[in-house]
Amino acid sequence: MNNTRFLISEYFDKYTVSEINKYQELGGFSGLKKALKEGPDFVINELKASELRGRGGAAYPAHKKWQSAKDRDEEVKYVLVNADEGEPGTFKDRDLMDCDPYRIIEGLTIAGFTTGACEGYIYIREEYEDIRKKLIDAINIAKDNNLLGNNILGTDFSFNIKAYTGAGAYVCGENTALIESMHGNVGRPRVKKPRVGERGLFNKPTMVNNVETYACAAAILTHGSEHYNNSGVNGHKGTKMISLCGNIMRPGVYEVPFGITVKTIIEDIGGGTRDLSLGKFIQSGGASCPLIPHTHFDTPYGYEPFKKNGFDIGSGSIVVANGNVRVVDYLSSVTGFFEHESCGKCTPCREGTKRLHEIIDDMCHNEASMKQYDRIKKIAITMIDTSLCGLGQTAPTAILSAMKHFEEELMESVTK
After folding, report:
1. Which of 81, 159, 266, 286 could cross-link to 122 by cystine, CB 3.0-4.6 Å?
2. CATH number of the domain located at residue range(s) 239-321 in this protein
């Protein structure tokens, strides 16, 4: 991959936390300096020109969220990093924080300045304890260098950041559950409205973005939206961090330009599957996203091409399955995960995840009836339409996509 396209990860492992001067020599904090010089409207216009979308899965345009937060005239507002990375196959945020912690701090500080927030928080999953300590060290060093704290870089802007340990549940990646856990309550989603943008942390307006979103914002401000847009290929704009794993020769975290094909990611970046075949399917975006069959591996990796084909970029994870993987076995792992992680607050999700896992488990043992198979769609529709949060609404997605693309194979696991 052309190194000129490495924008989000360009500083990976090129400095240690104690070497904040080296980070600045590389170009770090130049995005913050540009933001402080040009003003909040300039930042939002750059985000708009880059067409940056939220990188946690929802893909909501970043400039709209930042503009909405900026427009709220409350005196106290917060910006928050959602680093509760708990979906199977997703681990790119871990590397972003571990290999380039100052970029996350810079992106969050830019967001604080742009929106008028008084303080920022990094909500990091409890399993990332070593990374949390690294971030705290980086925050303290940034304060010592007047890059956080009062009157940053001699301006009127003051801003602090605190790191917060997650509640240890996948559902806490949902914004309202995340806020509830930070308030010391059980980490369960709450009924909306109000949304966290209206009443979030400490009942104040709170803007929440994914780790990668803040890293992208810092990169875009550093290099300019035009340069960022030119890093894509085949008419697509920008780059994306992906976590590549499964039946793949070279698993890991990679920055890829939007516009390359799924096949290129598997073969050229991942080195092909372990059995040297092209692969049977991938699951892109996390366990809550559809399966992509090998017949669609020529699809360009981008929001619009994926949406057109019913797929999802999601969080950026790509789990590769070769020809030895039975679809029903894979679905058993996915449904088992959602059954375990459902918070149990709403009936559709609590009962639906359990029922789906039971049916898929019966199919794994060739004990499921056609009546059970037909029930899957009824349960899925109920969950999608009536679940309280995104966990229940998206938990059936992988199954429904498998029924669309691999129905013949699934029927082999159903008794007539």
Report:
1. 81
2. 3.10.20.600
Q: How far apart are CA 295 and CA 358, in angstroms?
A: 29
Identify the H or E element spanning 114.
helix 101-115
**Would you call 131 helix, strand, or coil by DSSP?**
helix
46-72 pLDDT tens trace: 999 999 999 988 899 999 999 999 999
- HSE-CB for 178 with a 13 A CA cutoff: 29
What length is written for the chain?
A: 416
pLDDT tens sequence across 151-198: 999 999 999 999 999 988 999 999 999 999 999 999 999 988 899 999
Query: Cis ω on the peptide bond leading into residue 193 (within 30° of 0)?
Result: yes
Is-contact 177 390, C-beta < 8 A?
no
CATH of domain 3-228: 3.40.50.11540
| Nearest alpha carbon to residue 299 among 14, 290, 122, 84 | 290
378, burial (CB in 10 Å: exposed 0-12, middle 13-18, buried 19+): exposed
106 neighbors 31 (Cβ within 8 angstroms): yes
Is the CB of residue 214 less than 8 Å from the CB of residue 81? Answer: yes
Exposed / middle / buried, residue 46 (Cβ in 10 Å: 0-12, 13-18, 19+): buried
pTM attached to this predicted model: 0.95
Q: How far apart are CA 384 and CA 399, in angstroms?
A: 13
CATH number of the structural domain 327-415: 1.20.1440.230
Domain assignments of the chain as residue spans, ordered by start: 3-228, 239-321, 327-415
Residue 399 — φ and ψ, nearest 5°?
A: -65, -45
Say how far apart CA 75 and CA 204 lie, in whole Å: 9
Question: Within a 10 A sphere around the Cβ of 202, how many other Cβ atoms?
Answer: 12
C-alpha distances (whole Å) from 31 to each of 37, 46, 397 are 10, 11, 38
CA distance 112 to 119: 7
| Sequence-ordered alpha helix ranges (H) in 183-234 | 211-223, 225-229
